[in-house]
Design a protein that fits this description.
This protein folds into three domains: 9-96, Tetrapyrrole methylase, N-terminal domain (Cobalt-precorrin-4 Transmethylase, domain 1, 3-Layer(aba) Sandwich), CATH 3.40.1010; 109-214, Methyltransferase, Cobalt-precorrin-4 Transmethylase, Domain 2; 226-269, no CATH class. Helices cover 41% and strands 14% of the residues. It has eleven helices and eight strands. The chain is globular, with a radius of gyration of 24 Å. The termini are far apart.
Length: 276
């Protein structure tokens, strides 16, 4: 499973190029699209199509060829296979037939956008493409209303405006990052409140799929007495040697209370380090 560039052809890895030259067959989501990349690097490996409409049928054919001794690579149109792209049935069928499946990592639109969004990325929730119909989309958004992790999803140019309006209505006017044409000449990465982004996204002229990153929900403040806050801090320090900053950040994350309040209390009660 070979990741390929999401736009800029220079983003392919040396390993990916070697694999695509060495295999006996390349299965591609769209052979016409993939020939552009292969031609740029003078790769003449034979191609066979495998896309969402023929994946089950072609997976059986490809697995039979592997069992006959062929080495096969799979590439989607852009990015990492199986990430909102075909490839799942092929991987599953290969594993059921005891065939080793090897990842050749590389570009991914969601990771590229996440790296420049400025939101917490230690954990996040990726939703793929949201439901295309408004009522199902709004019901889905209701299920992530209280999600505190950064949320990422993809959207098509034809639905981006309707989707952002639904996000605004259901989740409120949060901070959001909208990226399109990543790594390409007309790359755009916009950040702001949803209400601001709605005024900036071109209507009817946008090209390329959008990657949308939504700031997670703010935790509701927890009502705690000062003694309970001190107890939480001391408990953290008893469990592990956290720094003052990390202990404060942990309690703020758990409670939603103001950082200054927690910090002022932590300074007064932090343990004094032992000296031998």
């Amino acid at each position: 499973m070979v990741a390929t560039p999401i736009g800029n052809l220079e983003d392919i890895t040396l390993r990916a190029l070697r694999i695509l030259k060495e295999v006996d067959l390349i299965a591609a989501e769209d052979t016409r699209h993939s020939r552009i990349l292969l031609s740029a690097y003078h790769i003449k490996t034979p191609l066979i199509s495998l896309h969402e409409h023929n994946e089950k049928e072609r997976s059986a054919i490809i697995v039979s060829r592997i069992e006959q001794g062929m080495k096969v690579a799979y590439i989607s149109d852009a990015g990492t296979p199986c990430i909102s792209d075909p490839g799942y049935h092929l991987v599953n069928f290969a594993r059921e037939n005891k065939i080793r499946v090897i990842p050749v990592p590389g570009p991914s639109a969601l990771i590229a956008a996440l790296s420049v969004c400025g939101f917490p990325a230690d954990s996040f929730s990726f939703c793929g493409f949201l439901p295309p119909k408004e009522n199902k989309r709004r019901r889905f958004l209701e299920t992530i209303r209280d999600e505190e992790k950064t949320v990422i999803f993809y959207e098509s140019p034809s639905r981006i405006m309707d989707t952002l309006k639904d996000v605004y209505d259901v989740l409120g006017d949060r901070q959001i990052v909208v990226a399109r044409e990543l790594t390409k000449v007309f790359e755009e990465i916009r950040r702001g409140r949803i209400s601001d982004i709605l005024l900036q996204v071109p209507v009817g002229k946008a090209k390329g799929e959008f990657t949308v990153i939504l700031q997670g929900a703010s935790p509701a403040p927890v009502s705690l007495t000062d003694d309970q806050i001190r107890e939480k801090l001391l408990h953290l320090w008893a469990e592990s040697p956290l720094s003052l900053r990390d202990a404060v950040a942990d309690v703020v994350r758990q409670t939603g209370l103001p950082r200054k309040k927690i910090y002022d209390m932590a300074v007064k009660i932090r343990p004094v380090p032992h000296r031998d």
